[in-house]
């Protein structure tokens, strides 16, 4: 499905509204990065990824490996919007027996490729899949996207996978790094300084781009560029605002793993609904 940027912005707004309601209903979960990633997920599912929601095992599909599994609410909200399961399922987030657990679980949810939880695993999983596609399947038309948090880059196995992907010139990997500068315990640079991320990834042999993670056109063009780079893996450092859309959460690490109460959720959703109206008006004017 390939929507225009205006229509993708509307999808991102709906995804944010659903993320807030899901978290409110669950009473626990991760707000900051789920809201911060809504524009990227809307662009992935409504422009970039090759998939069929009614045929999750489509042999020509792209892979999306979610390494920062605690951002599950934004993944689930985007997948519901894309038609993988009914939107009403979203309200079962984190409930006993629900397919939508706190971290995505492979097999339980159609279209989820790997189970996540332990941070740092996704890039290794993505590299393994990319290696198979490139050297065993000889399939140049399938891409392996992986979503990484910036706090997650503290994990040593990220850098092991980065070396592996460089060694085997895995040009089919597109790693999108959520650079929101926060993690569970504070600012990333206070907890464990990441330094110059562009230089770090470049020194590991990767092609690197830096983008505004809320700009749908930049998200799109950076992925198109990454796909055109066939001789090395690609990292896209996406600068995002944690809690984007909920003004009192924005930039504040304390919302990493906290959810809005009923009143706060109503406040955010009302604001998002007002934005939705103007986005629709703008889209009509194009
Ligand atoms: Mg972060």
Backbone shape: globular
- Order of neighbouring strands in the sheet with most strands: 1-2-3-7-6
Largest β sheet strand count, sense and barrel closure: 5 strands, parallel
Q: Please tell me how large the radius of gyration is.
A: 18 Å
Poorly predicted runs are none
Q: Figure out the total of helices.
A: 10
Kindly state the number of beta strands: 7
Which percent range fits the helix content?
40-55%
Strand content: 5-15%
Average pLDDT taken over every residue? 96
SSE sequence, one letter per element: HHHEHHEHEEEHHEHEH
Kindly name the structural category: alpha/beta
How would you sum up this structure in a few lines?
This protein has 286 residues and is an alpha/beta fold.
Could you describe the 3D structure shown?
It is a single chain. The protein has 286 residues and is an alpha/beta fold. Helix content is 43%, strand content 12%. The protein is built from ten helices and seven strands. The protein has helices spanning 5-26, 32-36, 38-48, 72-82, 122-136, 156-167, 188-191, 197-203, 216-228, 262-285; strands at residues 63-66, 144-149, 173-179, 182-183, 186-187, 207-212, 234-239. The protein has a five-stranded parallel beta sheet with strand order 1-2-3-7-6, with helices on both faces. A hairpin with a 2-residue loop joins strand 4 and strand 5. Helix 1 (5-26) runs antiparallel to helix 10 (262-285), helix 3 packs parallel to helix 4 (72-82) and helix 5 (122-136) packs parallel to helix 6 (156-167). It is globular, with a radius of gyration of 18 Å. The structure holds magnesium ion. The site of magnesium ion has 8 residues, from strand 4. Residues 33, 149-151, 178, 180, 182-183 line the site of magnesium ion.
């Amino acid at each position: 499905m390939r929507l225009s940027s205006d229509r993708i912005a509307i999808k991102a707004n709906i995804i944010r509204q659903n993320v807030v309601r899901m978290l409110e209903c669950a009473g626990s979960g991760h707000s900051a990065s789920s809201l911060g990633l809504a524009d990227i997920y809307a662009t992935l599912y409504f422009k970039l990824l090759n998939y069929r929601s009614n045929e999750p095992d489509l042999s020509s599909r792209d892979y999306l490996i979610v390494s920062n599994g605690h951002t599950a609410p934004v993944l689930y909200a985007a997948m519901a919007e894309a038609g993988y399961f009914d939107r009403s399922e979203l309200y079962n987030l984190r409930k006993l027996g629900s397919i939508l657990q706190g971290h995505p679980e492979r097999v339980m949810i159609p279209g989820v490729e790997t189970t996540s939880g332990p941070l740092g695993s996704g890039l290794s999983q993505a590299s393994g899949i990319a290696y198979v596609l490139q050297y065993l399947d000889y399939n140049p038309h399938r891409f392996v996207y992986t979503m990484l948090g910036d706090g997650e880059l503290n994990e040593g196995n990220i850098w092991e996978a980065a070396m592996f992907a460089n060694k085997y010139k895995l040009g089919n990997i597109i790693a999108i790094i959520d650079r929101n500068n926060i993690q569970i315990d504070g600012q990333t640079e206070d907890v464990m300084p990441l330094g110059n991320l562009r230089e770090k990834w470049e020194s590991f042999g990767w092609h690197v781009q830096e983008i505004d993670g809320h700009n749908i056109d930049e998200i799109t063009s950076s992925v198109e560029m990454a796909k055109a780079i066939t001789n090395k893996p690609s990292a896209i450092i996406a600068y995002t605002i944690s809690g984007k859309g909920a003004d009192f959460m924005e930039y504040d690490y304390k919302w990493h793993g906290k959810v809005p109460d009923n009143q706060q959720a109503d406040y955010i959703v009302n604001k998002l609904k007002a934005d939705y109206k103007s986005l629709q008006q703008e889209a009509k004017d194009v």
